[in-house]
Amino acid sequence: MKCCPIALVVAFAAACGPSVGGSGGSGGDGVSSTTLAEGSAATSASSTTTTAGSDTTAADGTTGVPVVCEFGGCRVTQDRCAPACGVAPSPFDADGCLRARCTDDAACADDERCFRGEDFGLCESSGMTCGEDDAGTACHCTTTNDCAGGHCIPAGDFPRIGAPPVGRVVAANLICSDWVLRITTSEVEDACNAPTQDASADVRFRGGLGGTVHDPEAVDDFWRDEDGTHPIVAAGLRWADDVATYWVIYGRDDGPVLVAGTVDEQVVCPGLLVPCG
After folding, report:
1. CA 13/CA 64 separation, integer angstroms
2. How confident is the model at residue 202 (pLDDT cuts 50, 70, 90)?
3. What sign has the CA pseudo-torsion 85, 206, 33, 116?
4. DSSP state letters, the chain
5. Measured on CA atoms in the order 27, 29, 32, 34, is the torsion positive or negative?
6. Residues 219-257 pLDDT 10s
7. How far is CA 188 from the centre of its chain?
8. CB–CB of 177/12 below 8 Å?
């Protein structure tokens, strides 16, 4: 497998960090409480407090009334809520508020289910709380460094686990910090250009704070299974010990499906890299 050059590995150190609610470093603008990636080997019960951005006075977009988080704490902004506020693996709902915590379905409402990261090969802190600082200008989220957490989501958003397609899996660095995950037939050699009709998947990522996650503006992303082509709901890409892994949730008429796997090859596309900023 072709690995990222050392310079790229260093540049993506933050993006290849820990998982949902895992500790991701302290201080600064760390967002350990809002990040998502593959599971980690964290076993310590120590806690980490980070600044996650505050949006507690923003209106809900319909009534003009500020959003009040049902389960307490403050509201994090969408840019601090990887992979995206409201998607199934996120401990934050669409408003950026912490969802109800759970360990099984019995702890959730009748129309909800408990999403436990460990059940999907992901990782979520079992202890997560958010609160504003004394000035009311920043939202601090505290997590424990473990992977035993879960949160309640609508039952219709709960994904089943599917098998990834067979083929050549490539993570290509297209420009700056943006990556694309492509799964193609083994005969397709050029990972830097547009996918062919034989491609099984094409998923674009953006290097976000706390994780490399699906680009919500990548409207041409797709996942193909035995029943056709489907849209991408959420996805994550991370590097650990020179191995790149991915997870993808795609939507089907009969419900969302989560697949995860290992990247066969990492490619830096020549001539496409430009300075960031």
Report:
1. 39
2. very high
3. positive
4. -PPPPHHHHHHTTTTT---BT----SSTT--GGG---B--------EEEEE----TT-B-SSS-PBP--TTSS-PPPGGGSSS-TTSTT-SB-TTSPBPPB-SSGGGS-TTEEEEEGGGGTB-B-S-EEEEE-TTSS-EEEEEESSS--EEEEEGGGPPEE-PPPSSEEEEEEEETTEEEEEEE-TT----SS---TT-SEEEEEEEETTEEEE-TT-TT-EEEETTEEE-EEEEEEEEETTEEEEEEEE--TT--EEEEEE-SEEEEPTT------
5. positive
6. 899 999 999 999 999 999 988 888 899 999 999 999 999
7. 28
8. yes
Q: For 140, what's the count of Cα atoms within 13 Å in the CB-facing half-sphere?
A: 14
Q: Whole-angstrom Cα distance, residue 148 to residue 41?
A: 11
Both tokens assigned to 277 = 């900023």
Q: pTM value?
A: 0.75
Residue (of 11, 160, 174, 175) closest to 88 by Cα position: 160
Select from 101, 225, 190 the least CA-distant residue to 151: 101
CB 143 within 8 A of CB 22: yes
